[in-house]
Each structure stands twice: as C-alpha cells, then as structure tokens.
Amino acid sequence: MPSHLDANTGDAPGKMSNSSGFSYGGHLENKNSITSIEYEPSIASRHSSIEDEGPVVTPHMGLLSSCNMIVGLIIGSGIFASPGPVTLKVHSVGASLVIWAIGGILSMIGALCYAELGTMITKSGGEYQYLKYAYGLCAGLTFSWANLLLTNPIGTASIATVFAQYIMEMAYFDPENPANAKANMPSYALKLVTIGCIWVVVLFNAFGRKAGAMIANVFTAAKLLALVMIIIIGWVWIGKGNVQNFQHAFDNSSSNALDYGTAMYMALFSYNGWNNLNYGIAEVKNPKRILPLAITISCTIVTIVYILGNIAYFATLPVDTVSTSTTVAMQLGMVAMGKGGAYFFALMVIFSTFGAVNGNVWAASRLIMAAANEDSVYMPPFFGKLDEKRDTPIRALVLVGVIATIWSIPGDFTYLANMYSFTGWLFYGIAIFGLILMRFKKSTKNMHRPFKIWLPLAMFFVLIDIYLVVAPLIDAGSEGVYQYIICIIVGLLAIPIWFVRVKKPWIGRKLWGWIPGYQDAGILKARERKQARKARDAAAALEQETALEQRASVVVDSEKIQY
C-alpha cells in the first residue's frame, strides 16, 4: 500500500476503518478514533532518524487520549460475527474464551512491535516503508500490491457480507423459529445484498463528499451502543443464574491443534486495527513512556470487552446457537428482548457494518490515488485523477467497487475473514521479522529508536505468526486450501510487475510501450529527479569550493605583492 501521502492533506489511507474521524472533503481529522480493519491515516513524525519530508506534527496526546485512540482503532464489527466461527472450530465455551484472550495478548505484542517500527521509521506509508527498509523496494511494493488487491477489498467484502447477513436475517426472521432464517434465505440474495451494499457506498462517496462523515458518526454510535447493551444483557442473565454453559466449560474441546489456528484467525479478525497505532505516533507526547503504557492498557481493555461480549453470548444463548450463527447479536436480542430486541440489534449492526464499508471504500480509493500518482508501478495514472465537477476520485472508487465485488462472490463471511487474516498476518510476521533484522543490519542497527520492544517478545510473535499462517493452510485440506493459494499467487504477481516496471523498465516499455499513454513508473521519475538534484548539489558544491580556492589564491597573491 503506498499510503505514503501527506497527513495534512488527508490523502493517506491504509487498510480500512470504521471511523468517525475523517472528513469527506479530502482532509483527515486525526483527533478522532479509527476502528478495526477499516482505515488508517498516515502521519509524519519527528521522533525518528528516518523522517518524512512533510510538515512536522506537534505532539499533543497524553495517556488518556492515546488510550482512546487505540481502543477506537481496534473495536470494530468483527465482534458481532466472529464468535460463532470461533466456537464452531474449538467446540467449547472455555476454549473459545481462551482464544479471545490469546488474541488480545498477540495484538498487544504486535502493537508494541509496531510502536518501535513507527517511532524509528516515520515516513508515511506504514508497512510499505518498513518492508522497504528491512528487505528492499521490491518487498515494500509487494505489500502495496497485496494491500490494494487483497487485504483492503477482501476486508471490505467481508464486512459487507456481515451487513447482508443481518439484512437477510431480518427479512427471513421467524420469531417462533429464529434458527430457520438462515436455511430459508437464498444464497444468491445474500450475494446481491453484499454487492449492493458495496456499490451504494461507492455512489455515496462518488457523488456526496460530505455524506460519508455523517455515515461514520452514525456507525460509531451504533457500534458502541450495541456492544454495551450486549454486555449488560449478558451479565443480567448471569445474575439470573444462567451459567450452565460455563459449567464444564472445556468439555468437548477440539483435540486438533490445527483447529485452534483457524479459530484464532476469526478472533484476530476482530482485533485488527492494532497495526494502525503507529500512524498516530507523531501526535503522542513522550512516546517512549506513553506508548507502551497506552498500548498495554488499551489492548487489555479491548480484550476484556471482547471476552465480556462472548460471555454475554454464552450466558444468553445455547452453545449450538452461538457456534452456528454469524448473527449472534440478533439471536441474543431475540432471547433477551423478543422480536423487537432482535430487530434493534440487527439494525445497530447494520448501521455499524455499513459505516465500516464506507470507511474501507473511502480509504481504498485514496490508496489507489496514491499508487497512481506517487510511484505508479501497479496503478496507471488514469486512476489518480479527481472528477472535475464533484472533486471526488470517481475512477478510483469504481475500481474499488469492482475489486471488492469480485472478492464478495466466491465465499461467505468465514471464507473472506480467513483470507483477510491470512494475508494480513503473513505481512505482520514479515514486518516484525524485518524489525528483528534491522536490529542487526549494518545500515539500520544504529538507527535512533525512541521505543524498543524486548527482542524475545518480537521473536515469539514471529514464531506464533508462522503457526497462524501455516496451520490454516494444513487445516483447510485439499478442498479449502485453494483460497489461500489464490492469495499467495495474487501477491506474488507483484514481483514480475516490479521487475519489468522498476528493475528492468526497458522490458516494460517493450511489452506495453505500444499502448497509448504508457508511461514509466513514477518511482523511476522520482529517482531521476533525486539523482538530478544530487548532481546539481554536487556541481554547486564544487563551484563554491572552486570559488573559495580562487579567492584564497587572490588573497595569497595580494599578500605576496604587498610583501
């Protein structure tokens, strides 16, 4: 993702966000929180030896503000859909709660690792920059490609699928037999609603610049209200003595270690957002002290909230209902408050997920603009243009809609969430292994690090990450592994494109030069400008040195004459 754009112009999107913290006039408002996997602003920082060339952001966030930002980054729509698939894999209440707890701990360690990366390398672009410094330009551009074609659109499609599931549950809901709604709904209708959600959001962003901000605000309120009410209802039911699901909580737990890797994927889908923390580091006062404390407190809060939410589901619903449902919030509402409660929670989740898709689409369109206007290795400059009449990136938005639509067709929420988590955690592991490498590389080992993670923790994270990437591949079997193979193939396609567009551009000219308007990658032009600037600076320095020598020679000659 070349989200290497200026923070003050608001052109720095990243993965995705369900945020109320951005303006649809094209400017980010970094003071607001950002949520889950849906959006990440990029901010230049002055706390590193590798700094952005853009304006310096004045640190203003203390511990409380930092905690608020981090909690907002993480809590998203996954908590309304992931508990079922997690329980289905591990087969027990106790094992499910342990998975959610471990997911929180892993997120905390990952966030601390990213805090070191973000305070050390503050150039806008996140993982693009980290991988570039650790492994080289090809790795950074491969991440950009994968984020444009895999992570962002798959995340968008997965959240749109949750939106569609709750819409369809409402349409086919039978209060007397709520479990039958899923069986009665046609699969094609679910796909149509998913695709419809994506394109309605695209139209909102294409033709109504300010509409998105309103959507984001409604979404944030809906998400928080629904989550708080779920937790309260759960504890009311526990107070009534509904604790049977917690007796012998680990009975029937899966004995297959691979099941736990796949279950962890689904839980970690809900924790996504911790990797965006570094995009707000520039605004944090004394990050060396505040960051680790804020990350520890905030990740602990999110983990507790998620565990309490899951306890509420298990206190209110039978385990079988939880494990087979991706609309657990609606099922809880039905049991606790009747038909009205079911519709209320469904509407809250619908608002939440619609806002999340809105944030994703907005962010992805700016990513595409960045890719087209900055390095233009993978994205033609055509997609970097704003519509003159509406001042919105209509071309980029349409492309976002097309890619997200393609990913929404082949599978359900679990399928998409697994693909998203696989791609995301593959790059998390590569980035944090790069952090370890940079501790020892000659060119980076002496870089200024305002905050340093304890190295064994980073190594532990990488080992767990390897398990999380490999286990689902094995667990999927011959029938399900193809979805991960598709991700790998699409990601690796970036390498030959980099080779012919950047490494050996003459090959690219030979292959595609006949296409009208074909241009070399913008990154090559940037290199040429940089080399030209260096040559001018060297020539100016030489000229200045020659002038000084001439003046010194004149002075010496003058002194000789006087003598």
TrEMBL record:
On whether Repeat is a keyword of this UniProt record, the answer is no
Q: Does the keyword Ribosomal protein apply?
A: no
The leader peptide range reads none
The record's GO CC annotations read: membrane
Identify its membrane topology class: Multi-pass membrane protein
Protein keywords: Membrane, Transmembrane, Transmembrane helix
GO MF entries: L-amino acid transmembrane transporter activity
**Location(s) in or outside the cell:** Membrane
Transmembrane ranges, per UniProt, are 61-81, 93-114, 135-168, 188-207, 214-238, 258-278, 290-315, 342-363, 392-410, 422-441, 453-474, 480-500
The cross-references to InterPro entries, in alphabetical order and at most eight, read: AA/rel_permease1, AminoAcid_Transporter
Q: What is the name of this protein?
A: Amino acid transporter
Which organism does this sequence originate in? Mucor saturninus
Task: Read off the lineage from the record.
Answer: Eukaryota, Fungi, Fungi incertae sedis, Mucoromycota, Mucoromycotina
